[in-house]
Design goal:
A: BirA Bifunctional Protein, domain 2, 2 domains, two-stranded antiparallel ribbon, elongated, B: 686 residues, alpha+beta, Phenylalanyl-tRNA Synthetase, Chain B, domain 1, 5 domains, 7-stranded mixed β-sheet, 6-stranded mixed β-sheet, 27% strand
């Protein structure tokens, strides 16, 4: 009598087990399942019975292991049969008729979406709020005093050119009105009505004639911060902006100042923050020009302050990966629903 | 401003690499735009802020580099060889409008040979993007790009009547410029004229008639000061900006007027030959008053938050050309600003100079600021609550333009009849009217979505409207009236929009004692006739006022915008509702006792609106009324009679002090029926 190697015996067992499971899972009804049962588990000529007979051909030392493997396979095939039997029996039964197809579509819940510009403004407000800056708001149609003169932009200044502003057709007396070109106007209004110490962020729409393209739009949003307290220095400005940038990006961020020029701040700087491994322009900033403090009735010898401005579209575009800022104003629901 | 690095090296020894120079200039205020090799040269484009006209010439940029790299600056001292004949015999110079031209100088060169420029000059101009014309014109451009002072050369033979007159242009006067285009001038502009006609638009462009050409031999070389406003009026008014106008608008160094004239004369003689007449013709008075500025020693530290040693401060200012004056207090210094830095006249200007040269990297970035408690303003909280409600209701927040076309602006506003305010220029093509309502813009937004295949764009926006104020109005909160609006545009009928409107009002807490909202029909475009309402707010101590409108959009408007299906809109004046969020209302503890349900069937005349019935019911049993739900409205001529209708109302009654017994509930229902009978003639249908 030839000796059957244990490995061969196990391989046959595995093949049988796989065939049995496939056949029983595939059985759609009781008739098919019974055929499969006879084929594999049949007491007389089932394939399991046949393989049991070959157990005797194993070497004596392999017989205990062979027996164990055989019993495991038989238990598995039997369990598979019982599961299939339960399935086939249940398919026709009354209680499963109302079972749901859980993959059918849900009753839709329409979610609303906040505009990405609003989201960005909120985030800036929240961070600045934690630093003690109060959000303020003011008119969009302004007079010459608030948009220019109080900000040390005199009558002959090019920034007041009719081609560079949206002037209204009607004036108030001799005073031309215009859509504000910056939200610093609100800072002037607040300073005119309140005494230092003061920490505010003014935010909202501003308007400058510019041909709309991927990075320009004639209407956009600004957030401008202002702090007026005795003893304020450029170091306070840098520290506040670094805290802001770190909080906005969620990790410690470096900021740097480059000299710049704005009529209403002196010294004036451009602020860059390190974002994604390079310097990205955040906005303009500086110490409030003494002429501005005087214009609102403060004494520049006893209080100093700083101001900064951020373009909301620019940081929102970068934050959300929007390549064309006109997308913010197209109001395409497919765009808005992503926020 | 484009810089040729070869050219710059004439005045200062540059650092090892262009990048090193560019980086240092950038951190001192000259922003870097681009670096580009041109032949053997490198062109560097720098962004020069409007306060620094001194950097609109190579010498100015070289001076910055000299300060930053601590190297000497070499500025040439041109001494052109003069001939024997005095210049005064050639032509007379008069200034008629000193307010726009304080100072005018002219030199005369005779017998020059106009021809091509040498290659060094052509190359340098090419590096900075200026095309070569001829040796004389190239010299005027070169000197302007060198020192920032624009110059102009006239063909002296073409100047008529032996006179140069600087005056305002006459209104409607015409002028043919070097570009061979004719321009019509205004009195705001300044011209250089001869005895007969304008020969140059002062500070902007020369005239075609007197330009230097191949046949020119005698040259009148102009170097002058022109007022920024006059130059800007011409450059912008005629869209004729030039390198010259750009510099005059910013104010070149007055000390360079004479220097530039000598420099150009010397170069012209060198390159084109000829004889320079002796002396210079001058009209007017050089306006150059250097400021004397006090700088307290501790001031720099007070502004920057970091101290810079006194010696270092002095070194920086001196290198920049400031001159220390004698006789200040011990710790105060007085400095005289150089002629090229008229942007510096105050102490803070000196602080900035010291800071930018020292570098802002030295400013600390870890200074603590004190904690201060802040609150969102009631107005801001109101806006946020409205956004919250509308986003929860499934709407998308849109942002549309504040400025609309005339036809969109003409749609009536719920908030005032004043004509829409116009602006110039238009915000975008055709849009030059400030909107008085957001709804038309939101309808366009919905329409735009339909056009891209999105038919269910339900949108809202919170923004200001703009309404002209009466002449005598208080303008302390802005020159025009700017109501803060929440606009809503959704698919659906009147009742969907009404539900959203009511959700906003409820979300803001516009309820409670002393506050009453009444909904009444209105007729207002763009809503369909008979399918729109206004909401009137009455509250103690205030005049009643409209706070919202709501309605179905008229078919004609939907058709114009290609909007399918029913569309409804609402607009709420949220600035009028800020009071509601400002006050905290105490919570009402829910009753522990069981409710009683009673249905009543009230028959009224067709003309009686539900609102009247509801308010009668509330008036009758308010403290016990938990809900009052309209179940059904039905009409049946046979059973109810013609012109009659029935409201089936489910009342939920509950007491806060005890369980309502059946007879108590019945008594409340009787009160309801009686009050409805009294107020709206309702009868109970058995």
């Amino acid at each position: 009598m030839t000796i059957v190697p244990l490995d061969t015996f196990r391989a046959e067992l595995e093949r049988l087990r796989a065939d049995a499971e496939a056949a029983m899972d595939a059985a759609a009804d009781e008739v098919a399942l019974e055929a499969a049962r006879i084929d594999f588990l049949g007491a007389k000529s089932g394939r399991l019975k046949a393989i049991q007979k070959s157990l005797g051909g194993l070497a004596a030392a392999d017989k205990p292991a062979g027996g164990r493997h055989f019993n495991e396979a038989k238990a598995a095939v039997t369990a598979c049969f019982e599961a299939a039997q339960a399935r086939v029996a249940g398919a026709g039964s009354e209680c499963r008729l109302d079972a749901i197809d859980v993959t059918l579509p849900a009753e839709p819940v329409r979610l609303g979406h906040m505009h990405p510009i609003t989201r960005t403004i909120r985030r800036v407000q929240e961070i600045m709020g934690r630093l003690g800056f109060e959000s303020v708001d003011g008119p969009e149609v302004e007079d010459q005093w608030h948009n220019f003169e109080a900000l040390a932009i005199p009558a002959e200044h090019p920034a007041r050119d009719p081609l560079d502003n949206f002037y209204l057709a009607v004036a108030r007396g001799a005073d031309p009105l215009l859509l504000r070109s910056q939200t610093s106007t609100v800072q002037i209004r607040v300073m005119e009505n309140r005494e230092p110490p003061l920490r505010i962020v003014s935010l909202g729409r501003v308007y400058r004639p510019d041909t709309a393209d991927a990075t320009h739009y004639p209407m956009f949003h600004q957030v401008e911060g202002l702090l007026v307290e005795p003893g304020t220095t450029l170091a306070h400005l840098k520290s506040v902006l670094r805290m802001f940038a770190s909080s906005f990006l969620g990790h410690a961020v470096n900021v740097r100042f480059r000299p710049s020029f704005f009529p209403f701040t002196e010294p004036s700087v451009e602020v860059d923050m390190e974002w994604g491994g390079r310097w990205v322009e955040m906005g303009g900033a500086g110490m409030i020009d003494p002429a501005v403090l005087e214009a609102v009735g403060y004494d520049p010898d006893s209080v100093t302050g700083f101001a900064f401005g951020l373009g909301v579209e620019r940081i929102a575009a970068r934050r959300y990966g929007v390549e064309d800022i006109r997308d913010f104003y197209r109001n395409d629901a497919r765009f808005l629903r992503q926020f | 401003m484009i810089i040729s690095t070869n050219w710059l090296a004439d005045y200062v020894q540059l650092p090892g690499t262009v990048d090193e120079m560019v980086e240092r200039l950038l951190m001192a205020g000259l922003n870097h735009e681009s670096t580009k090799p041109v032949g053997q040269d490198v062109a560097v484009e720098l962004e020069v802020t409007s306060n620094r006209p001194d950097c609109l010439g190579h010498i100015g940029v070289a001076r910055e580099a000299a300060v930053l790299f601590d190297r000497p600056l070499h500025v040439p001292d041109p001494r052109p060889l003069e001939g024997a004949g005095p210049v005064s015999g050639s032509v007379a110079v008069e200034i008629h409008s000193p307010e726009i031209c304080p100072w005018y100088t002219a030199r005369v060169i005779r017998g020059a040979r106009v021809g091509p420029s040498p290659s060094w000059l052509v190359d340098r101009l090419a590096t900075v993007g200026v095309a070569s014309v001829n040796n004389v014109v190239d010299v005027t451009n070169y000197v302007m790009l060198e020192c920032g002072q624009p110059l102009h050369a006239f063909d002296l033979a073409k100047i008529r009547g032996g006179r140069i007159i600087v005056r305002r242009a006459e209104a409607g006067e015409s002028f043919l410029a070097i570009n061979h285009k004719a321009y019509t001038l205004t009195e705001r502009m300044c011209v250089i004229a001869d005895a007969e006609r304008p020969v140059a638009l002062a500070g902007v462009m020369g005239g075609a008639d007197t330009e230097i050409g191949a046949a020119t031999t005698d040259i009148l070389l102009e170097s002058a000061q022109f007022a920024p406003l006059a130059v800007r009026a011409a450059a912008r008014g005629l869209s004729l900006a030039s390198g010259s106008s750009y510099r005059f608008e910013r104010g070149p160094d007055p000390a360079m007027v004479e220097w530039a004239s000598r420099r150009a004369a010397a170069l012209i003689i060198e390159l084109a030959g000829g004889t320079l007449e002796r002396g210079v013709m001058v009209a007017g008075k050089l306006a150059c008053e250097p400021a004397s500025i006090r700088l307290a020693a501790e001031r720099v530290g007070e502004v920057l938050g970091v101290d810079i040693a006194d010696a270092r401060q002095r070194k920086i200012l001196t290198a920049l050309g400031f001159v220390e004056e004698r006789g200040g207090a011990l710790h105060d210094h007085r400095w005289r600003a150089p002629s090229w830095r008229r942007d510096c006249w105050r102490e803070i200007d000196l602080v900035e100079e010291i800071a930018r040269v020292e570098g802002y990297a030295r400013v600390p970035e870890d200074v603590a600021i004190s904690a201060r408690p802040v609150e969102l303003s009631p107005r801001e909280r109101t806006v946020r609550r409205v956004v919250e409600v509308l986003v929860s209701a499934g709407l998308c927040e849109a942002m549309t333009r504040s400025v609309v076309t005339e036809s969109v602006a003409s749609i009536p506003s719920p908030w005032g009849d004043a004509a829409p305010l116009a602006i110039s220029p238009p915000l975008v093509r055709g849009a030059d009217r400030l909107r008085r309502s957001l709804v038309p813009s939101l309808l366009e937004a919905r329409s735009g979505n339909v056009a891209v295949g999105v038919e269910d764009a339900d949108v809202f926006e919170i923004a200001r409207g703009y309404l002209a104020r009466p002449a005598a109005a208080d303008v302390s909160d802005g020159p025009v009236d700017e109501p803060l609006l929440a606009g809503v545009v959704v698919g659906g009928d009147f009742f969907r929009a009404k539900g959203l409107c009511e959700a906003v009002l409820a979300g803001l807490g516009v309820t409670g004692p002393g506050v009453r909202l009444t909904t009444r029909p209105i007729d207002l475009a763009p809503f369909a006739a008979g399918r729109a309402a206004e909401v009137i707010l009455d509250r103690a101590g205030q005049a009643s006022e409209r706070v919202a409108v709501v309605g179905e959009v008229a078919a004609v408007t939907r058709d114009r915008l290609a909007l399918p299906g029913p569309v409804a809109a609402a607009e709420i004046r949220i600035d009028k509702l800020v009071f509601a969020i400002a006050g905290e209302r105490p919570v009402v503890r829910p009753s522990d006792y069981p409710p009683v349900q009673r249905d009543v069937n009230l028959v009224v005349d067709e003309g009686v609106p539900w609102g009247s019935v509801e308010s009668a019911i509330r008036g009758a049993v308010e403290p016990f009324l938990e809900h009052c739900r309209l179940v059904q409205v039905w009409r049946d001529a046979e059973r109810l009679g013609t012109g009659r209708k029935s409201f089936v109302v489910a009342l939920t009654l509950r007491s806060t002090t005890g369980t309502l017994a059946g007879d108590e509930a019945s008594r409340l229902v009787d009160l309801v029926v009686a009050e409805c009978g009294r107020r709206v003639g309702a009868v109970l249908r058995a």
